[in-house]
Amino acid sequence: LCPPGVLPLCRRPPAWGRAARQRPGPPLAPCRAFSNNKILVELDESSGVAMMKFKSPPVNSLSLDFLTEFCISLEKLENDRACRGVIFTSAIPKIFSSGLDITEMCGKSTEHYAEFWRAVQEMWLRLYGSNMVTVAAINGSSPAGGCLIALSCDYRIMMENPKFSIGLNEAQLGIVAPFWFKDTFVNVVGHRVAERSLQLGSLHPPPEAHKLGLVDELVPEEKLQEKAAAVMAQWLALPDHARQLTKSMMRKAVLDRLVAHREEDIQNFVSFISKESIQKSLRMYMEMLKKKKS
Amino acid sequence: LCPPGVLPLCRRPPAWGRAARQRPGPPLAPCRAFSNNKILVELDESSGVAMMKFKSPPVNSLSLDFLTEFCISLEKLENDRACRGVIFTSAIPKIFSSGLDITEMCGKSTEHYAEFWRAVQEMWLRLYGSNMVTVAAINGSSPAGGCLIALSCDYRIMMENPKFSIGLNEAQLGIVAPFWFKDTFVNVVGHRVAERSLQLGSLHPPPEAHKLGLVDELVPEEKLQEKAAAVMAQWLALPDHARQLTKSMMRKAVLDRLVAHREEDIQNFVSFISKESIQKSLRMYMEMLKKKKS
Amino acid sequence: LCPPGVLPLCRRPPAWGRAARQRPGPPLAPCRAFSNNKILVELDESSGVAMMKFKSPPVNSLSLDFLTEFCISLEKLENDRACRGVIFTSAIPKIFSSGLDITEMCGKSTEHYAEFWRAVQEMWLRLYGSNMVTVAAINGSSPAGGCLIALSCDYRIMMENPKFSIGLNEAQLGIVAPFWFKDTFVNVVGHRVAERSLQLGSLHPPPEAHKLGLVDELVPEEKLQEKAAAVMAQWLALPDHARQLTKSMMRKAVLDRLVAHREEDIQNFVSFISKESIQKSLRMYMEMLKKKKS
Description:
The first copy, chain A, is of the alpha/beta class. The first copy, chain A, has helices at about 65-80, 110-130, 145-150, 180-190, 190-200, 205-210, 225-235, 240-260, 260-275, 275-294, and strands at about 30-35, 40-45, 50-55, 60, 85-90, 95, 100, 135-140, 140-145, 155-160, 165, 215-220. In chain A, strands 1-2-3-5-8-10-12 form a 7-stranded mixed beta sheet, with helices on both faces. In chain A, strands 6-9-11 form a 3-stranded parallel beta sheet, covered by helices on one side.
């Protein structure tokens, strides 16, 4: 019953804008919060907007635990008709998310690698395909998988701190961003910018990221939350159903591509990451990070 | 006998630039005009350029009658070897075209919806696939289907009046632009701009439309026709055959996609538009328009 | 053993960045040069960078001989583990390359046309799919096939001389750029810019080429070689293997498309170029060029 090529992204029956929250039912508390170990979620029921805060020290790296919590939290909100939009931000200063947790990819079993990669895929499938409005409030650096989270949202606002940077820098580590990271990136910045940035593994400072279209807007530090709320309100002014179908129409081809090749993608990741040369490269990178810290 | 993947767009045998008009035959009048109820066409045979003026008050909405006349007029010109290019503009102040006529989509039979949608498809297939040079001289607001007409031309010039706007604002009405509106839009502005603009159902004022690449040029009101003629002359300086094959190469994939799914697209539209929730949404929108007028 | 959809581009086993040049073996001379009739190659083994200079007077047109030498030279470097990057430039003042040699396409046998076209394809397949870092140092005008060489590199730097221009101007000659010229162009500048530029057969002066993204950077004449070396060093700072896999991921779809339709593409070219109307058009163009010279 949808226009051609358009299917609802998630299993949730589409909510009908503000009207959806006026149907009969038990009275709802004005604000609910739930938290696991690594992610804090606050839902403001008056606006229909949830805030998802990453709080996994030291750098919000995307460990298997983090990814699992992320998917559970997102699914909870997706199925909660009181929630229409999510703002993603970090509870840790200076870092949005450092990306995939390298310790999950180094010196583990192939079974572990496969489980981990499936969780990374799951995170992206749910976020890029979310029915909700998703806004990234990028309050720190955001390399690799951290950048992917931002790229998968509907809108990206970044603090204009010159110490922050964002990009898919996998090539710098001697590894290759998977095709669906690339597809997501191309959808945001176009083929040429993606080709150059991915090959160089570039981490872009805020003004450059803005110029390239990697983020939509830069704001001074103190304005980030206010701006994120204003953007969210603008997107929520649209009727959910039409917006969701439109989003699905734009993203379906790229989502379908991973769904169609998911097991193959896992096999490829496991083979690639298990190679001794890659393991060595990652160990060297971790050594370097340790030295930097001390 | 064409380069790979390149097929002439229309059935007309390609004209060979200016030479095509010098072949023997009865002498031609310097200017011919024909008019139906809703569209006025003037062909200047000395330049090979036709002007197609929309004159369907109050807002040039794309009714079934308008679309039928549009297709007949365009086919006439396509088959007229004296015509190499068409400029589209409005004979009504402040509005280029208000887009699809909502009265055709509201409270009618499913047969009517199917017939109407086939006419919308036909209009786009003929215009986006035209062998002629097509220039939109946008002298008023141009939402939804009006924007599609502009997007389907080879070049877009817009009056820089701050009261005008242009965009695919379907989402604002609770409906979804079909995939081939989206494909046409993406071909002009790229994936990211299209994703955001479609989800928000944005109507862009001229400077923003220009910045996004949705229109190619802004001109002061009094310069529009002069500019359109100059752009047309620039495009007609090229040999028709090579230009036509190149245009076909660029647009064929997107045209073929609708041709391959045309009946399915009609079915989808009819099912979607027949839903009570959508009918209600359109009725509310029409009420709002009526109140605005009075 | 590669991530999904990622295959090494060439047959050469991937080198591992700088480490690749530190393996045991016979000591290497600091600089080697080889030259055929039309191309001069200098390889600086300390940096791993080769300079390929086109020196085929009067205008570096891509004749069958030139293309053959180009492919042999590129393959030599591709298989030379001492070489990681190539800078392409012209040894002839004011012209980078004038593109395909029209004399190869005019008044010859169909067998000759087929052989010539296969050589053009081969040049592009090797260059666009090269494992090495490729930088175009554009020190003169670069129409048609000359522009294709530049577009196929990883990075384009152009002298900002207002007398120079660059573009795929085939339509001006009454011919049509093949689909893989178009695909390469779209990957660099996007669909809209490509559509307009190809239909008009535009030759863009340096500032316009830069604005459209057709070249990445403009430099004053005396800075070109220095800048090319600096850009090359930046790209070579990345580990080769990851960069090569990333490049392949970005370019594979477009390369595969020609590989899949190569014979068909040759047939189409031969049929098209053999047409009397096209031959006439090319003869007129050659006459015009001759008159210009004298």
